[in-house]
Amino acid sequence: MHAASDPYPHGGSYSMYGAPSNALVPVERSQGLTIMKEYEDYDPRLDAYDYDMGGGGYPVAPMTPVLPRSRRNSAVSLMSLPGADGFRRGTGHRIKFKRKGTLMGGIGLDEAQSRVRLSNNDSYSFHDLHSDHHRRILLKVKWAGYNSLTYEIPLDGWDRRVNLETLARRVSRACVHYLQANVIPILWDRVVLHHLEEVTYGVWQPMLSTR
């Protein structure tokens, strides 16, 4: 097996058990944080398949934390995070996701990975997201009844504006990994990302529901 296993190796479908909940699922703020470095779009083992297109299949193989490698943002690692006191209080800002040309807010995790066009793709600045000097934010993902995981997400953009479509794709990948890592019995292409909400300065929680 490759030393830096891809967090989303393509596998078979994951069965659905029980009825989905339509309630938004916020990230709990009291849980401890675990940072996992964000994985970049490209992996040499995926040349024959563009994972970004999504397909509704649920990945089944677990991700193994490894040491960072030299290739930019390609590895996944675990590291500690300072306590919440190390962050300034969040502003309550929200980063909204909405498909271009639609009135309804929210996009599916599968849509985000299929490079769907979003409204106001360059409406937010790096400052709005309170990114660090490396242009990264923390994404804390939590599903009811499961422990949280926090991911380090790099931001891309131009002229100090964040590329919202790229952010949505990376948030989607983190959420899919979270579902897979916790073996949560739900098809990931039935999960909708509504918006990100800042819980502490530079730490964002995805608001999710099922469809």
Automatic annotation (TrEMBL):
Domain DUF6741: 83-210
Domain of life: Eukaryota
Any matching Pfam family: DUF6741
InterPro entries: DUF6741
Name of this protein: DUF6741 domain-containing protein
Organism (species): Candolleomyces aberdarensis
